[in-house]
Amino acid sequence: MPIDLESVNWLYVIVLALFVFVSTLVGNLLSFNHRGMAGLLSALAFATLFVFWTYYPHGVPFLPTSITASKAPAATVAPAAPAAPAKPRNPVTDITPPSNN
What we know:
47% of the residues lie in helices and 0% in strands.
């Protein structure tokens, strides 16, 4: 199987499945069982829940690391000072051209 099931964050999958279930229930209740409107309302409710859950900084420990990693703005990052040049391992430090004899 191309998907490694052991690396799946199952708690995150369950939370998203619960969001879909709740948003489908809300969509059906608000649309009075009209299928098209229920689908549209369910999609909007899920998108709202997903964006809130994924991008709101509430510090949930089991979100994927790609989502929870804080991104520093590029303007506030100071340029790194240049490092001192490394000394060569070769003890000969004199660079002279070879003599043509």
